[in-house]
Amino acid sequence: MSRQLWFSTFGIEAFSAALVLALLASANVQAQTTVAANNGDWSDPLNWSAGVPAAGTHAAINGGFTHDVTPGAVVGLLDIGAGGQTGNLTIGAGADLTAGPNAGFRLGVGVGSAGHVTMTGGSVTANGALGSGLVNGDILIGDNGVGTWTMSDGTLTVADEIL
Question: Which of 5, 51, 71, 120 is least surrounded by CB atoms within 10 angstroms?
Answer without folding.
Answer: 5
